[in-house]
Design brief:
single chain, about 350 residues, alpha+beta, 2 domains, four-stranded antiparallel sheet, two-stranded parallel sheet, 15 helices, about 40% helix, about 10% strand, elongated, cobalamin, tRNA processing, EC 1.17.99.6
Amino acid sequence: MTNTASQQTDFVLLAKQIKQWARELGFQDVGITGIDLSEHEVYLKKWLANGFHGEMNYLADHGNKRSRPNELVPGTISIISVRMDYLPGDTQAVKVLQNSSQAYISRYALGRDYHKVIRKRLAKLANKITDSVGNFGYRAFADSAPVLEKAIAENAGLGWIGKNTLVLNSKAGSWFFLGELYTNLPLPTDPPQATKHCGSCQACLDICPTDAFVGPYQLDARKCISYLTIELKGSIPENLRSKIGNRVFGCDDCQLVCPWNKFAKPTQETDFLPRHTLDSSDLTTLFLWTEEQFLTYTEGSPIRRTGYVGWLRNLAVGLGNAPTTAKVIAALKSRLNFPNEMVQEHVSWALRQHEIKTEER
């Protein structure tokens, strides 16, 4: 990391300016912290040792770089942590969840891919800093590298890591993205919140459809619906399929019941607003998309991560949990010979569920 920032730079003033610039660029909150993540490193290693990361092997890669920022980006001494709210004003989330004929897509994925949006804003923030103090060393991240972003946000005072393992903010809930700017500037740091504010509440633990929480602050990703529908590339364990319901990409249950989310404010970012009616589409409509339609309607969307085959797999599970109708049965049968064994397996399972429902009538 190169740094030509003047020795005469008033870094206390610069920190204040950075926060002002960040808010002008569309970030709702910003904090600054150092690089000591030793406490979180202990937690990470224990979590990995328990195998809770499942097939997400990238979380175990890169040695200690994830928890030691100066090893990932040599020269890093300060980290600017930012928050950007993403929740649309009227998400209809609960309504969609209760309508088992509709597809529930995690609210963060309804609009454009947040990675690019946040990284571009962070680049603009870095340019403003450069204009003020000269060249300095930095790298921008938005859930895109071995970075402990939740730990950094907690240390920077943006909130606390709650029992559902998400960062919670007492004035904004948890419907937000995080981003980081690693820098070699000796910026003054902000204090973390003194205490966590979950208290005795465990609504998030109780609501989880698949019982993925092994305890407060402890998530077994292998049972988490977000993992099962996004990260898992193979077959979804059969014993968990009926519990997934109509959640075809991610899950928000633990956020929907969190009391702190009554303070969440609607996003002002048009990029995060729902596209292609993905916030209220029927399962059958999405299941019958061709691959070309899938690629067209998910262009620039986080949904691309699951791929077309994963998309059909997830929707087949949703259709297996949907009410038995001629439309649903016809849609499933149309994919019985889809040229992928995993999709065929999930479609066959879904049809069996309707046979069972019919027999039980």
